[in-house]
Automatic annotation (TrEMBL):
SUPFAM superfamilies: beta-lactamase/transpeptidase-like. PANTHER family: BETA-LACTAMASE-RELATED DOMAIN-CONTAINING PROTEIN (PTHR46825:SF9), D-ALANYL-D-ALANINE-CARBOXYPEPTIDASE/ENDOPEPTIDASE AMPH (PTHR46825). It comes from Phytoactinopolyspora halotolerans. Coiled coil: none annotated. Pfam families: Beta-lactamase (PF00144). InterPro entries: AmpC-like (IPR050491), Beta-lactam-related (IPR001466), Beta-lactam/transpept-like (IPR012338). This is Beta-lactamase family protein. Residues 27-331 form the Beta-lactamase-related domain.
């Protein structure tokens, strides 16, 4: 599934924007920043919530986020650039570039094994509490100590074994091979080449006021507290980068097929080829890139987990689609939100292929759309292509179960599909005042109202009683 019409993507993005705004509030996430790119056009660059809750600073598309393990894609890109130039080889042993590894178990681990998390290297050393800010991230001397102190956990190529230490060593290899420190190399040869003004390899104190504040989780407390930004030191190649959602999708657009700004297509396909099935998931990993199949669409990208920020970006290199979602909470649902856009696009493409409800082409489908609420919850009537759907915006995947709505007349729909416990075959009847929806009687024959009306009622009513309903 590759071909995408701009109209289908715009339909999906239109709902995605509304859904993200709802999910930010519903999930009690301090802030969500998102961007969608198709072809060479940014179709969405938006932000919801707050960059700083305590100070009341609203989040904008220009606020900076720590995108953490997205850094690995920059590192892999840099390695493949050096390989294309003949400066290093993917089968070079690590000791060729890092003499301090001579005699250590990791000395023979290859560059390619480090890129694909195939080297059996310890994930974060034997004391990873820098992730909780108990102390600073490892400097170069500490990284060398970690790499030579029982860092060989399993034999190379036994299985996929994710390693931040392995990618930190790749940063040192890039520095040794290029003659430039890692941060300088990736800035000059990747960030500046793409004119990514809001992207960098490490925390920039000069821009401290531009970062979205990170926050702790609600899993262990009833409130979130701020988390300070810190420098990741010798681990920037694994987790140091900052960016915005808009810059992130622009960066990944350089990994679309046919784009030669950073790498040849041959190198990009090498990065995107599966090296491993990731145990315990449906995903795979290439060289610095996640691989996933979402609704039949093959996508690539990476996630990032940094103290206070959780982020995710996906891209389809053939259809030239990219989506990035950045959250400033350590339990932020960036992955399901980003994959939600892919699922919406897939459904919009399916709904644009002539299989819509063409029996009533005289009726404007958009008149039925909106967000409606009952005491039981919220439902969205959404147009994608030539079809109307009933979505549950509280769900991680609102497109499932797929509930289609056929047009009966200019004020009536019929439920088609959905789960067996739903209202299959029943009607959804609208009351209009001019072009505005007053109410909708649908599932379980209950009356729903535009969500603003129910929200206002909750703000003023003390209780719900028979004869005094929430409305």
């Amino acid at each position: 599934m590759t071909d995408l019409s701009r109209a289908a993507v715009r339909d999906a993005v239109g709902y995605f924007d509304s859904w993200l705004a709802f999910r930010q509030r519903y999930s009690r996430i301090p802030g969500v920043q998102a961007a969608v790119l198709h072809g060479d056009e940014i179709l969405l660059s938006a932000a919801y919530g707050h960059a700083d809750v305590e100070a009341g600073v609203e989040l904008t598309p220009r606020h900076l986020f720590r995108i953490a393990s997205h850094s690995k894609t920059f590192t892999a890109t840099a390695v493949l650039q050096l390989a294309e130039q003949g400066t290093l080889r993917l089968d070079d042993a690590a000791r060729r570039w890092l003499p301090f590894l001579d005699g250590a178990p990791l000395s023979s681990v290859t560059v390619r094994e480090l890129l694909g998390h195939s080297g059996g290297v310890v994930r974060d050393g034997h004391d990873g509490d820098f992730w909780q800010l108990y102390r600073e991230f490892p400097d170069e001397a500490t990284l060398r100590k970690i790499a030579t102190d029982g860092a060989d956990i399993i034999p190379p190529n036994e299985r996929f074994k994710y390693s931040n230490i392995g990618y930190s060593l790749l940063g040192s290899i890039i520095a040794a091979a290029s003659g430039q420190d890692y941060n300088t190399y990736v800035r000059r040869h990747i960030v500046d080449r793409l004119s990514l003004a809001d992207t960098g390899p490490e925390y920039d104190p000069a821009r401290a006021g531009e970062y979205a504040r990170g926050y702790t989780s609600l899993a262990y407390a009833d409130r979130r507290i701020p988390v300070d930004h810190v420098d990741t030191a010798a681990m920037s190649a694994a987790t140091g980068f900052y960016s915005t959602a808009q810059d992130a999708v622009r960066y990944f657009s350089a990994h679309f097929h046919g784009d030669d700004r950073l790498l040849s297509d041959a190198s990009k396909r090498l990065m995107q080829r599966a090296e491993w099935q990731v145990d315990g998931s449906d995903g795979e990993y290439g060289l610095g890139l996640d691989r996933a199949e979402i609704g039949g669409r093959r996508v690539f990208g990476h996630g990032g987990g940094y103290p206070g920020h959780i982020t995710k970006t996906y891209f389809d290199p053939e259809a030239k689609l990219a989506v990035s979602v950045l959250t400033n909470a350590i339990d932020g649902p960036a992955e399901p939100l980003a994959s939600g856009l892919i699922r919406m696009v897939n459904l919009a493409v399916e709904s644009s292929g002539g299989n819509g409800d063409e029996r009533r082409s005289d009726v404007d489908l958009d008149r039925f759309t909106g967000r409606f609420a009952t005491m039981w919850g919220v439902q969205d009537v959404v147009r994608l292509g030539r079809r109307l759907y009933l979505f549950r915006p509280v769900a991680d995947d609102p497109t499932q179960p797929t509930t289609k709505l056929d047009v009966v007349d200019d004020s009536t729909l019929r439920v088609v599909g959905g789960i067996g416990f739903g209202s299959y075959g029943e009607t959804v009847r609208y009351e209009f005042s001019g072009a505005e929806v007053v109410s909708v009687r649908g599932g379980s024959a209950t009356t729903a109202y535009p969500i603003e009306r129910i929200t206002a009622a909750v703000a003023t009513q003390e209780r719900v009683s028979v004869g005094d309903p929430l409305r």
